[in-house]
Every structure is written in C-alpha cells, then in structure tokens.
Amino acid sequence: xxxxxxxxxxxxxxxxxxxxxxxxxxxxxxxxxxxxxxxxxxxxxxxxxxxxxxxxxxxxxxxxxxxxxxxxxxxxxxxxxxxxxxxxxxxxxxxxxxxxxxxxxxxxxxxxxxxxxxxxxxxxxxxxxxxxxxxxxxxxxxxxxxxxxxxxxxxxxxxxxxxxxxxxxxxxxxxxxxxxxxxxxxxxxxxxxxxxxxxxxxxxxxxxxxxxxxxxxxxxxxxxxxxxxxxxxxxxxxxxxxxxxxxxxxxxxxxxxxxxxxxxxxxxxxxxxxxxxxxxxxxxxxxxxxxxxxxxxxxxxxxxxxxxxxxxxxxxxxxxxxxxxxxxxxxxxxxxxxxxxxxxxxxxxxxxxxxxxxxxxxxxxxxxxxxxxxxxxxxxxxxxx
Length: 385
Fold this sequence. Notes:
The protein is α/β, with parallel strands linked by helices. The protein folds into 2 domains: 7-250, Rossmann fold, CATH 3.40.50; 303-384. The protein is 40% helix and 21% strand. The chain contains 11 helices and 12 strands. A 5-stranded mixed barrel has the order 5-11-10-6-12, surrounded by 5 helices. A two-stranded antiparallel sheet has the order 7-8. Helix 2 (60-74) runs parallel beside helix 5 and helix 9 (325-344) packs antiparallel against helix 10 (347-363). The longest helix is centred in the middle third of the chain and has 23 residues, at 228-250. It starts with 6 loop residues before the first strand and ends with a helix. This is Nucleoside phosphorylase.
C-alpha cells in the first residue's frame, strides 16, 4: 500500500484526550482493524486533511503495538501522539503545550555493585516535522477558539517516557530523572512506544504533543480536581490539529515544492518522438501531489477532494511568498464560489463551477504547480459534464 499523502494518524491514551481531538473532526466513520482495534476516520473542518483517530490506553507497550497497527492500516503522512503529561520545569505552566524535541525511554539501565546505571534510548523529532511545529507555534493561530482566558504557551523540549505515573518531586524516580535526564521538561507513559514504532517504519515522522495537566510533584490530585486534565487535553488537541494541517501541506510527500527547486519553472525537459501510428499520450516533467490524468467511467475524479488539495497548495504558496496576500484572498473567494457550485450539483451550477475555476486560473497563472493542478481539475470537470 502506498503512503496516504492526505491522512495523519492521531493516537491518544485516555478517553478525555480522544474526545478533545474528536471534537475537532467532522464526517467521522468507524474503521475496524481485523484484530478488533477501532479507529475513527474524519476530516479537520469541512475540507481539511483526513485524520485517523485511535485510542491506545496507558503505557509504552500498547502504544507501540497499536501505533504499528495504525501505520500498517493507513500508511499515513505522519503520526501524532496527543494528550496530557506532568511538567518538570517551573517555567512550563499548567495548560501549556510541550512538543517533544526528543523522547527518552528512561527505564533502561543496568544494575551493578555500585548502583543503577542508565542505558537510555532516545528518538529525536524529524527535522521537517520540527520546522512545521515551530511554524505553527510561531504563527499562533492554533490557539484561536480556546476558552476565554486560555493563553497557553508552546515549549519544545525533551519528554521522558516510562512505565509509572510520577507524582513526587523527591522520590527515587524523581531523583533518577533529574540525574540522568536533566533536560526533560515533561514526563509521561506512551511516547517511547510510539517513537519506536515510527522509527521502525522507515522513519515515519512522529510528533508527541502534550498539554501539561500537573507538575509531577505530589499535587496531581489537586490539579485533577481543578479539571486541568481536560483543559490541557484541549490545548494539546488544538495544537496537534493545526500541526496535522501544516504537515499535509509541508511534508515531502505532499504538495509543496521540493527544496532547491524554483516554483516558477520546470527544470526537466522531456522529448518524445512518435513515428508511424504511434502517438504521444502524456509528457510530464515533475509532478507533485496526487495527479489524475484522464477520468475513466470506472474511477471518476473526486472534484471535492481535488478542490481541497488545491486549497492547501494555495495556502502553502501564500506562506512561501509565491502568492501575495491580495491575490490569495481573491483566489480563495473564487475557490469558495467553485466549491459552492459543486455542492449544488445542477447543470447551471456546473457552468458556474467552471467559470469560477477559469477566473481562478488567471489569478494563479504565475505559480506553475497551481496552474497545472487547476488545469487538470478543469479538464476533469469538463469530462464529467
């Protein structure tokens, strides 16, 4: 099965974390794995990327097994693990979000005569996913829609993942963490399993996003009583959903322009020679994203999905500076008009759909991949009329 460029898997350990993500998805449908695991597949908003949401339970072992199961089932662009954690630094406030720049499996060690020696395993966040996460944090739009008075900050740092709930600042485990994993800013129980699953699947991008619900210092009962768990889960879910959107735009498997290449010209030249009764069918240089050429009756083109893909490409072109803000706004308006006509579905509306796309073509003509994608959508729409 090939990688699904428009789907991100999001896994959680607790039901409240699951519900926090689920509340941000639409069009949910259950998908059952052969072994009984249930996922819900939906979209972010009405036309955003698809998300497969799953519940793994507590602990690194189940998280590793079910992460592997989700990867095999969906072949996603990325996998996010989302939920709550205990904070280990005073600067990380309750409700803040921590993105794991590194995940430690801290229970590895060897017992010798002079004490327990650490044998840590660690996984770093992939560079491209790290860049995307910093961009989402920097832009700051992810926090819109949170409850009044919520102003969580985003921190990037190491997360320690073990097999016990830490609720003390002076226990033997707390001292062990400070001594051997002094850069950890949060502690939890699942990230190491998920990180290992991603590592074993050709370095699938894995990002761990945690909302801080307690301070891992003996005050957990108090903070849980103050409902910090659901609040922190909502904050983590908001950031993770925004990151999922960014990853589907910015991943190397998505619609962005590969690094080192310009967006306004194609550097590859193809030359085909046809003699006798032979004809050249399709000549293409570099094609990015999902491309369908020639709609067959058996496999009709999904115009709604194509419009959603084009919308994400336009957003990325604007973020990259290849499409100015004024042109982007006008292009968005035409795309909204086209999508509205597509939803109506009558013959008159199909005509309006094509008119809007032709206007849009004039707006994005200077961005080669947008113009190419739009030309394919127009051709497919004409073929289906």
